What we know:
Elements: H1 6-20, E1 27-34, E2 46-51, E3 54-59, E4 73-79, E5 83-90, E6 96-103, E7 106-111, E8 118-121
Parallel strand pairs: 1-7
Antiparallel strand pairs: 1-4, 2-3, 2-5, 5-6, 7-8
Amino acid sequence: MGVVPFSYILRSYYSRGLFRGSCCFNHRVLFKLVGTTSNRAEIGARVTVYASGVARVNEELSGGSYISQHDLRVHFGLGEVTKISRVVILWPNGKEEELKAVAAEAIYTVPQGSGITQTVSRPAVGTK
Length: 128
């Protein structure tokens, strides 16, 4: 028996999940942060999501490698959680903003100091 390349194993593993569409049935939430007093993309902002007794932290980044670009929205995978009790945003200028009772499966636009101004609902991952 020959050696199977690792890249082939990865491709075949992920392909099964993608083609069958049965990989995940979890929830997520995204925040599009808009700067008003510091940089417009709010690079450097830190978002903490509190849901089901667990705190999840993510930061707004601009890039991660050579010739690459991150999504400028802050993304959180929530597993089976459908409601977030509290979201704390630490803006690059040091100010803090808090949002309460935020639902999963949406993209929220949050200009600095204004709270949520726009909500775009998204279907749950894995739904048809």
